[in-house]
Write a structure and sequence with these properties.
There is one protein chain. The chain contains three helices and five strands. The protein is an alpha+beta fold. It has a single domain, classed as HIT-like (HIT family, subunit A), CATH 3.30.428. Strand 1 and strand 2 form a beta hairpin. The protein starts with 5 loop residues before the first helix and ends in a 9-residue tail after the last helix. The relative contact order is 0.22. InterPro entries: Histidine_triad_HIT, HIT-like, HIT-like_sf. Pfam families: HIT. This is HIT family protein.
Length: 143
């Protein structure tokens, strides 16, 4: 049996994660290497390596969660636009990057902060959780 992906280990609580959303099919948590403050990963609970291999209903749910989280991130950080990116090269488990898009350079994951302050990540997660609560998604907000 293949080893669980790092995202599965985060979802299962084997590794720490700053969750902002949890439901039966997907989770969202802050990345440890943000391109901008508020950079979130939306991840299906089920391990699938490539997004095009997902069944349509699961992919639709994942993008629906990404949109809801993206609206909360936009509100929380006053972003002019939101970025959404599926790269799929870093971890063999589908994930959607959702982040405040300040410029085209924001889409370059190579420019991500490799050593963010943990307090800043905690504060960003709190802001996103509150924005999700304020927009009516309390039942999905991770504690």
């Amino acid at each position: 049996m293949p080893m669980a992906s790092v995202f599965t280990m985060i979802i299962n609580g084997e590794l720490p994660g700053r969750f902002v959303w949890r439901d039966g099919q997907a989770v969202a948590f802050l990345t440890i290497n943000p391109v901008t403050p508020g950079h979130v990963l939306v991840v299906p609970r089920k391990e699938v390596d490539h997004w095009e291999q997902m069944d349509t209903a699961s992919f639709t749910h994942l993008t629906d969660v990404a949109q809801k989280v993206g609206r909360a991130v936009k509100e929380a950080f006053g972003a002019p636009r939101m970025g959404m990116l599926i790269a799929g090269l870093e971890v063999p488990h589908v994930h959607i990057h959702v982040f405040p898009a300040l410029s085209l350079e924001t889409f370059d994951l190579a420019l991500a902060d490799k050593n963010p302050d943990p307090a800043d990540l905690d504060a960003a997660a709190d802001k996103i959780r509150q924005a999700l609560i304020d927009t009516g998604y309390r039942e999905y907000v991770a504690d």
